[in-house]
Design a protein that fits this description.
839 residues, alpha/beta, GMP Synthetase, Chain A, domain 3, Non-ribosomal Peptide Synthetase Peptidyl Carrier Protein, Chain A, Glycerol-3-phosphate (1)-acyltransferase, 9-stranded mixed beta sheet, 7-stranded mixed beta sheet
Length: 839
């Protein structure tokens, strides 16, 4: 029997039970949600709505990043008959409030960072996982729902138009789910061979296509969905490999960035020409042959990864061909919010090159005489919420005019030709499609990205190319000239300019904002750019982190003295820059940046990135057993011989099971031995220790100028340190973010982590100032902190003695402490220092 509403879809979640549904990052930790946990949280949220008197037809805003809690709140609204109103996580508070007023929202469920910006009654999104864990789940309240009932109102975020709220019903979503479910059933018997399929979903859940790949499709396959906010190529690849992801779901921009990363990696190894030769010779070769030739790329992503799903915009043919040549399936879908996203989708095993797929069952598509794509079927939404937007535009026969141009070949593949409204009509009366010009530009080696906009001329328009150059390219004239040679005479671009920043302004789905780009071009060609261009995206980003006005910024502005950026502000700025420009930025280089001008130079990637090694094999058997034997046979006897310590405070750890973050003052190299001796067995046997990253890496990769025996000796010392003492690098100057991420991975595996917050040995016997990074680590791990203090060892060192009488060295364990997520890292570091000083 066909489903009548999304409420019935919750049975799919309950049926999957304890299978993993969602994997997401919480600070430096990885959190996993089962399907049963999602269903239980959805049920509890529906009960919360009922207790607040919010019922069928009322509106609730959901404003936050992709997360399992987001999914549970959405499904809870669906089960209660409440209309969900998803808002992009990146939306401005004024926009969210305007939407809340427009739909008369009864409640807003938002992330903690948005809570202070809303006047609407709200609940914190992140709290719902903890609430479910602490209470019993009550049955879902029964509500009579029909296919025509409204499920959600999605406010589109087009590149130029004022957003409008598209009203999507339960029936619209079910109509698009039905053909996907039917097709998926054919392949479930093969899915058992690779179970579970894992999707890394980088599309926002506030958009319908993101919902299909993040909520509706995975339960039908028993798949797990990985959520990640960071779009930095290196981090995307690391997540794919670490979580053994099968399919990446992203906008074309991410696929292009990953392509550039692969090429950049080969360039750094002086193997780019070799790679291009192999790439050229792979045309027309069998899939298995291509897979073998490019196996080093497959090793980088992990052997389970096999496909990209691209949505939100049209993927350029060059990127599609690149990943296809490397042996990956590239699946494109086509749809609009008004059609509940899906109109057509490529079959993963029967791809049409350059196509956006075949039309899904249950809907019809035809091409109008002027080339416009027309669609009708159960997925077409009924109208817009905003009365000023009118209803969905359909003809007498129910055909919806998409505003897109396309073509259908003899095999039924649909091809996207561009937006109808984007057609440039030249003074000669010729129609020019920007996508054709952009395709010619992207084939030029100097061009990293481009947008072709209409430049008004004599009542018509001329095409104008706005380009972003690749690293090392000095000018764009030659590239535009070569692009023009591949175009018809009437298509050629007589106007072009270089975009002044590292990237275009973009919507939440990474589409360039054409209106802003066109405004800049008009100002440039009318000689008004200096007075009316406004602040740059880089200036806006720095200002948001620093809390200053962008007008105060110039290339000589000092990040420390003029903008008052703290070390933690710099960490936030570095992460924001990497996300904004989707580049691999050097932390070593960033540590030396002093002015805005230095930062602009750094964005061109002139400084190599420092590399540290984090061997995961030390966290697994048999190394764990060897480490246990080494502790009792070697380390513990050595500590007792050095000076039997007097230990106090172990009673403070009763009931504390871990994993926990252990901190201690730093007197010398023997500190670790005394900490391990003092800790109870349950912590001692599962402890990873952060140590000086620069020194540890020097052992791992000794200078090539030294002789072979010395290098072998240093490598053996490194291997013994990381295996027998479970050491991992924590650089003192830069590069610590990867170390903190590794600490989170240790926590996820059940290991506690020992950190010496001073960062170096004391030379006076007094406690050195704690580095602010310890506060950042504590905040992002969300775990109890066990403070410890060693006394008597420094006096032994000063006296030049190697052994101490029993009890002279004292180790004290303090009461474990926790900190709220609202506390600032500097405050946490200060409080921890006071606690250790007081022991």
């Amino acid at each position: 029997m066909a489903r009548q509403s999304l409420a019935e879809f919750l049975t799919e979640f309950e049926r999957r039970g304890n299978e993993t549904a969602y994997i997401q990052r919480r600070g430096y930790r990885t959190v996993r949600w089962s399907y049963r946990q999602v269903a239980g949280t959805a049920s509890q949220f529906a009960q919360e709505l009922e207790s607040r008197g919010i019922g069928k037809g009322d509106r609730v805003l959901i404003w936050g990043p992709n997360s399992a809690e987001w999914v549970a709140v959405f499904l809870g609204c669906a089960a209660r008959g409440v209309v969900a109103v998803p808002i992009d996580d990146a939306a401005r508070p004024e926009f969210a409030e305007r939407v809340a007023t427009q739909v008369s929202a009864k409640l807003m469920v938002c992330s903690r960072q948005h809570a202070a910006a809303t006047a609407t009654p709200f609940l914190i999104l992140e709290d719902w996982g903890a609430k479910t864990a602490q209470s019993c789940v009550t049955p879902m309240p029964a509500v009579d729902l029909k296919p025509e009932d409204t499920l959600e109102i999605v406010f589109t975020s087009g590149t130029t138009a004022e957003p409008k709220g598209v009203v999507i019903s339960h029936g619209n979503v079910l109509a698009n789910m039905a053909p996907l479910e039917t097709e998926a059933q054919k392949y479930l018997k093969y899915e058992r061979l690779v179970h579970p399929v894992r999707f890394l979903n980088l599309l926002p859940l506030s958009h319908v296509f993101g919902q299909f790949l993040g909520i509706f499709l995975p339960p039908l396959l028993g798949a797990a969905v990985v959520f990640q906010e960071n779009l930095k190529p290196a981090d995307v690849v690391a997540s794919i490999r670490r979580e053994r992801v099968s399919v990446l779901v992203a906008v074309p921009r991410v696929l292009q960035s990953l392509k550039e990363k692969i090429e950049r990696d080969f360039r750094d190894e002086n193997r780019l020409e070799e790679f291009r030769e192999r790439f050229g010779s792979s045309r027309g070769k069998h899939f298995l042959w291509r897979w073998w030739v490019f196996r080093e790329v497959h090793r980088q992503f992990g052997w389970k990864f096999w496909a990209f799903i691209s949505g939100g915009a049209t993927l350029d043919l060059e990127s599609e061909e690149f990943w296809g040549r490397l042996g990956y399936a590239v699946i494109q879908g086509y749809g609009l919010t008004e059609t509940t996203s899906l109109i057509s989708v490529n079959h993963p095993f029967r791809l049409g090159e350059g196509s956006i797929g075949k039309v899904l069952a249950g809907r019809e598509v035809k091409i109008a005489p002027d080339g416009e794509i027309l669609v009708r079927g159960g997925g077409v939404a009924s109208g817009y919420w905003d009365a000023r937007g009118g209803g969905i535009a359909t003809s007498d026969e129910g055909w919806y005019r998409t505003g897109d141009l396309g073509a259908i070949d003899a095999e039924g593949h649909l091809y996207f030709k561009g937006r109808k409204k984007d057609v440039i009509v030249t003074p000669a009366g010729m129609n020019v499609y920007p996508q054709d010009l952009e395709g010619a530009l992207r084939r030029q080696p100097e061009i990293r990205d481009c947008v072709v906009i209409a430049l008004p001329r004599d009542g018509n328009a001329e095409p104008c190319a706005v380009v972003i150059l690749r690293e090392g390219a000095l000018e764009a004239e030659a590239a535009v000239r070569r692009a023009n040679e591949s175009l018809a005479e009437f298509q050629r671009m007589r106007f072009w300019l270089v975009w002044p920043e590292e990237d275009f302004p973009r919507t939440s789905t990474q589409k360039p904002i054409a209106g802003e780009i066109q405004h800049f071009a008009l100002a440039h060609f009318s000689q008004q750019a200096a007075g009316g261009a406004g602040s740059s995206p880089l200036a806006d980003l720095i200002s948001r982190v620093a809390g200053n006005s962008p007008e105060r910024l110039n290339e000589n502005s000092n990040l420390d003295t003029d903008l008052n950026l703290s070390s933690l502000d710099r960490v936030e700025l570095l992460g924001a820059l990497e996300d904004r420009y989707q580049m691999d930025l050097s932390e070593t280089g960033f540590a030396s940046v002093r002015t805005v001008g230095d930062l602009e130079k750094m964005l061109h990637g002139t400084v190599p990135r420092a590399r540290y090694h984090y061997p995961r094999w030390v966290l697994r058997w048999p190394v764990t057993w060897i480490r246990l034997l080494a502790h009792y046979l070697l380390l513990r006897p050595a500590v007792m011989l050095l000076g039997w310590p007097r230990i106090s405070g172990r009673e403070n750890l009763r009931g504390v099971r871990g994993p926990a973050l252990v901190i201690c003052n730093h007197l010398g190299d023997a500190d670790l031995g005394f900490v391990l001796t003092a800790l109870p067995v349950r912590f001692r046997h599962h402890l990873a220790t952060a140590t000086g990253g620069e020194a540890l890496e020097a052992l791992r990769t000794p200078p090539s100028s030294r002789n072979g025996v010395f290098r072998l000796y240093e490598r053996v010392r490194w291997a013994l340190g990381v295996s027998l003492l479970n050491l991992f690098p924590l650089p003192r100057e830069a590069g610590f973010r990867e170390s903190f991420a590794y600490a989170g991975e240790c926590f996820d595996r059940g290991y506690s982590v020992l950190v010496f917050p001073e960062g170096r040995h004391t030379t006076t016997g007094r406690l050195l100032p704690f580095r602010a990074g310890i506060g950042l680590l504590v905040k992002n791990l969300g775990a109890p902190v066990i403070p410890m203090r060693i006394d008597g060892l420094f006096e032994l060192k000063q006296a030049g003695k190697k052994f101490a009488p029993p009890g002279q060295i004292r180790v004290k364990i303090g009461v474990p402490v926790r900190f709220s997520v609202e506390e600032e890292p500097e405050q946490i570091a200060g409080k921890l220092q006071q606690i250790v000083e007081g022991l």
